[in-house]
Design a protein that fits this description.
The complex is a heterodimer of chains A (111) and B (113). Chain A is built from no helices and 11 strands. Chain A is an all-beta fold and 111 residues long. In chain A, strands 2, 4, 5, 9, 10 and 11 form a 6-stranded mixed sheet that branches. A 5-stranded antiparallel sheet of chain A has the order 1-3-8-7-6, with no helix packed on it. Chain A is globular. Chain A starts with a strand and ends with a strand. By secondary structure, chain B is mostly beta strands. Chain B contains no helices and 11 strands. In chain B, the strands form 2 sheets. In chain B, strands 2, 4, 5, 6, 9, 10 and 11 form a 7-stranded mixed sheet that branches. Chain B has a 4-stranded antiparallel sheet with strand order 1-3-8-7, with no helix packed on it. In chain B, a hairpin with a 7-residue loop joins strand 9 and strand 10. Chain B starts with a strand and ends with a strand. The chains are: A mainly beta (111), B mainly beta (113). Chains A and B meet through strand 5 and strand 10 of A and strand 4, strand 5, strand 9 and strand 10 of B.
Chain lengths: 111, 113
């Protein structure tokens, strides 16, 4: 079983739509969770950390469900500039600060 | 806004040659990392470095790889004898240490011919 699994997509949505991505992780003792975005052939950029209580940053909301071992990202009012690959990232317990990446979910926002 | 920088942006080398990839982490950060991403694949951890020594390394980081912090600002990754399968984007990252958040540099594209 992959450590971090994501639906690769692509998710094709119109501007203004709400879109949600899920991610599952296999290590139940994982301790830290993040969403990064990656544009084509660029570096991963930290979008937000994911906290147990859930957190929101503008149009972006992240949720963590430890019991079911999944993380979600909701994007409201999608913009063309949101088109990118969204990477679910986990730090398993005992792995120091080693980030474990999912394969990413590709989002394409169309006019 | 402070950022991680990397040089060169693109390196082409012949199989068997040594390469050194350079990174300047964010200045007040204490933890440094190298990751790689083979084209079309996911980002993979190579090594983490703290207090002038390796703190974690993956199976990919074998004896062909080494890291060094030669001065107060640079952090380098050396590949001693490159193989075709070393062709990838190599990302440097750094973190402050008070949180787990890591910030990535723009990457060096390594092409081994």
């Amino acid at each position: 079983r992959k450590e971090v699994e994501q639906d690769p997509g692509p998710f094709n949505v119109p501007e203004g739509a709400t879109v949600a991505f899920n991610c599952t992780y296999s290590n139940s003792a994982s301790q830290s969770f993040f969403w990064y975005r990656q544009d084509c052939r660029k570096e991963p950029k930290l979008l937000m950390s994911v906290y147990s209580s859930g957190n929101e940053d503008g149009r972006f909301t992240a949720q963590l469900n430890r019991a079911s071992q999944y993380i979600s990202l909701l994007i409201r009012d999608s913009k063309l500039s949101d088109s990118a690959t969204y990477l679910c990232v986990v730090i398993p317990r005992g792995a120091g600060n080693m980030l474990t990446f999912g394969g990413g979910t590709r989002l394409m926002v169309k006019p | 806004e402070p950022e991680v920088t990397q040089t060169p942006s693109h390196q082409v080398t012949q199989m068997g040659q040594e390469v050194i990839l350079r990174c300047v982490p964010i200045s007040n950060h204490l933890y440094f990392y190298w990751y790689r991403q083979i084209l079309g694949q996911k980002v993979e951890f190579l090594v983490s470095f703290y207090n002038n020594e390796i703190s974690e390394k993956s199976e990919i980081f074998d004896d062909q790889f080494s890291v060094e912090r030669p001065d107060g600002s640079n952090f380098t990754l050396k590949i001693r004898s490159t193989k075709l399968e070393d062709s990838a984007m190599y990302f440097c990252a750094s973190s402050e240490g008070t949180t787990d958040e890591q910030y990535f540099g723009p990457g060096t594209r390594l092409t081994v011919t």
